[in-house]
Amino acid sequence: MIVGALILTLLSTPSVAAAPVETRELVTDLPTDFLPEGVEWDAKHSRFLISSIRQHRIASVDPSNGHATDFGDAPGSVLGVHIDAKTNVVWAVWTQFGHGFKDNKNTGLSAWSTDDAHHIGDWPLPDKNPQVNLGDLVIVDAHTLVVSDSGTGAVWRFDMKSHTFTSIVAAGKFKSPQGMSLGRTSGTIYLADYSTGLWRIQLKSGAVTQLATPAGAELRGLDGLYRRGDQLIAIQNGTKTPRVLVITLDKSDLIIDVRHWIDLTGAADEPSLGTFSNDTFWFVADGQWNEYDEDLKPKPDVKLLAPKLRALPLSELAKQK
Question: How far apart are the first and last CA of the chain?
Fold first, then answer.
């Protein structure tokens, strides 16, 4: 989710546009004012977990029919959500937004057991800057989460054993950090900064390197970011044409190709975050963020749609190389 960010108006054509892709949708029976943001596939229990910005909770959704049930409540608007499959724990970031998404009261991490939805705990970020807004997270190893603060531009490490935060990148370095994925090299991650593009971060030193954008490609306006081998899948909602990109890296992390996997004009209202499920990439297709006011209330005369997920077959990735 991008709070207060302007939609990028610069349109450009990536190096090669993708051929038409057959997709499918899962329309849920979540409330139309759920305002979804994150989604995670729970392989052990064969279900999706979908986070709500407006309703401060996570819902469980049956992939066979879209039927939703409650999973867990959070202290604030829930954004990114990921499961540690080794411990059967779901982790999520949340923010208590103020009016106009300023003077935010708090932000932090929460955890639940995937087996019985037992609430394990809540851990607020120690930074009390009123712009704080943890937006996404990535699980690095058995002890470590990394979280991005799209409000201040900081990146934090969270120790899942001691439940403590330490700084990796100080506030102000990035404009609006969003999705992250594990790097190809151990001890690194890739990060999408909404206003500037893709970066690599050395977790131990905090050193950052911007990945050069190939001529003719646009890598600003990226939200969710996911890696499979030498390819990054990125959800781009900051351009006039929302789309899913496939970004190919060489062994030195040089971007050698950027392609449209699918353009979503007229098919999605602000796609946000995604997840892998077996042979498929699923993503939230209609966050409908622009239909809400600065107090997270639906704007007058707005007709909200039932939240839905959209699926892209991973077999198509081979065609994107």
Answer: 29
Q: How many CB atoms lie within 10 A of CB 220?
A: 19
All residues at 6 or more sequence positions from 300 whose CB lies less than 8 Å from its CB, including other chains? none
Tens of pLDDT, residue by residue over 19-46, are 556 678 999 999 999 999 999 999 999 9
- 């997920």: which residue's tokens? 309
- Whether the model clears a pTM of 0.90, i.e. scores above it, the answer is yes
258 close to 15: Cβ distance less than 8 angstroms: yes
The tens digit of pLDDT for each residue in 222-267 reads 999 999 999 999 999 988 889 999 999 999 999 999 999 998 876 6
Residue 70 φ/ψ, nearest 5 degrees: -70, 145
Give the count of beta carbons closer than 10 Å to the beta carbon of residue 60.
18
Are 72 and 57 contacting, i.e. CB atoms less than 8 angstroms apart?
yes
- Host H or E run for residue 167: strand 164-169
Mapped onto helix, strand or coil, the DSSP state of residue 318 is helix
- Is residue 171 within 8 Å of 215, Cβ to Cβ? no
Contact in structure between 260 and 243 (CB atoms under 8 Å): yes
